[in-house]
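Title: Request for sanity check on Methyltransferase type 11 domain-containing protein prediction

Description:
We are preparing a figure and want to confirm that the structure record we downloaded matches what your pipeline produces today. Could someone re-run it with the sequence below and paste the raw C-alpha cells into this thread? We only need the C-alpha cell string, no images.
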Amino acid sequence: MNKPINSQVSKGWDSTAEVFAKYISPANISTGFSTLFAIDALNATIEDPNKEMTILDIGSGTGGLSLYGTSKYKNARFISTDFSPKMIQILDTFIKELNIQTIESKVMDGQNLEPIKDSSIDYTYSIFALIFFPDIVKGMKEMYRVLKPGGKTAIGSWCLDSFLIKVFQQTMDELLGNNSFKQVALSLSDKQVFEDKLKEVGFVNIEIKRVQHPMEIQETTDLIKMFSVNPVYFDCLEALPDDKKPLLDQTIINVSNRLLEGHKRNQNGKLELPSFAYIGIGQKN
C-alpha cells in the first residue's frame, strides 16, 4: 500500500478545520454546502424521523450532518467522529454553544471503530470522507460491523463532472500531462466500482443515487483562498516538480474561468459551480 498523502492523514485535515467551520456551523446549519449532501443522505435512508435511533457520522468534519440532524430527528442520538482532533474540537464548541445533549463527539479513525460495539447503530454515514481512506473496503466493513441487522448506510462520493473535481484534474493535466495524476477524491467516482465495493462488504438493497447542489462563490480567485490550506490542494502541490509549483494557483484560476465561460451569475450576484455527487446506500442483512 502506498504511503498515505495529505488528504489521508489527520494533520492534513486539521489545517483546514477553521475553513470548514465557516461553511458547516450553527450559522448555516441547514444550508452549508456539504450539509446539503448530508441532508440528501439522511432523507434517502431514514423513513420515520420520529423513531428512536442511534446515528453514526464517520469523518464528520465540524458536524454538519449531526448538527442538522438534531433539529429534525428529535429522538435520535448522534455519534459524530473524525480522525482530525481540530475538527472535533470545533464541533465541541458548536455543541456547547447550542447546548445540544444528543451529540457525542469522538476523535476516531473510520477504518477502526473498535470502541463502537457490533450491531449497535441504526444508521451510518460518511459524506465525502470515506473516499479518502487509505483502505476504503476496511472502512466500509467497519460501517457494516457496527450496524444493527436491517440498518442502513449512506456514503457520499464526488462525481467526475463535479466542478471542483474537473478544475483540479484539468489543472494537473495541464501541468503534468494528461492522466498522470489521479485524485484520491475520485476513488468511488465510478458508479459500478462503488456498487461492487458495497456488495463485497456484504451490503444488500444497494442504490447509487446521483444528486447535485451548486457551490456559490463571488470570484474564481476565491477558490485559492478556500483551498490554500486544504489537503487536496497540497496533494496536487506535492505532485508537481519544483518548477511547476508556482504555476498551480494561476492555472486553477485559468481553468475555472474557462469552465465558467458563458455562465451567468445568479440572482445573488454569485457564480454557481455545478457540483454532482453519488450517495451510495446499502443495508445490512
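Thanks, this matches our download. The mean pLDDT is 95.
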